[in-house]
């Protein structure tokens, strides 16, 4: 597994974005990202965001899995969120609950997320580094959403890909990120946009199957610390594990970050795409054909020829993939 390339802040990274190559820029300060780097501590956020009610993922397991749905959504205030994280960290492992929050839009099923829809304070204290803003302004891209995230250390978010490019900005705490190129979707057994595999960031190599191991040979990894910005290209699957801090003095231990998703003006996206995870229209149409028309064709055959049908479809698909 390779390290995600780190590039200097003054690099012209437009070609990396165009070629869908992940990269990391480190060393941003409050002058670049706003006062969030200094101010977004759990106690302060709990006080300011206080009684704002939000939907939170809650699980008895640290590995959240969207395919298995091993979590539930609970509405709670930010004060309750931080209090429950604090109380959970006092418990023995068997009694812990694991909480993860992802911001939603003002109308969750209709509007993409933005920081002001959570609380004006977030938008006032966060900004994109000037060089990133400048490149986005000069391109055909447009900002789709800004997503505010809070997770407790030990939580691993299910491996998934997004349909949009995005910058992940680490504000507080640290995260391990594993990224897989688009050519490995079938090796990760992706359903819709999510993989059923758990512990992707802490994989037991001795028990993993050969397909998953072959995906790891093409993967990248990096650790994000406050002031780091990671570019995650569209269709790059990624697993994210929130790390425990080396400094154990914090009473409430959290990982806090912001995603900025942006769309490519040359790609036809699904019109809804509220969360930025719906496949571009050509991909969606192809998947619909496979799951409906192709399926109906295969069902006209006896079982042994259905196996041949799908094996041949897979073979043709892999030929096109390998020729790219």
Automatic annotation (TrEMBL):
Domain (JmjC) spans 117-279
Q: Which Pfam families match?
A: Cupin_8 (PF13621)
Superkingdom is: Eukaryota
- What is this protein's name? JmjC domain-containing protein
- Lineage of origin: Eukaryota, Sar, Alveolata, Apicomplexa, Aconoidasida
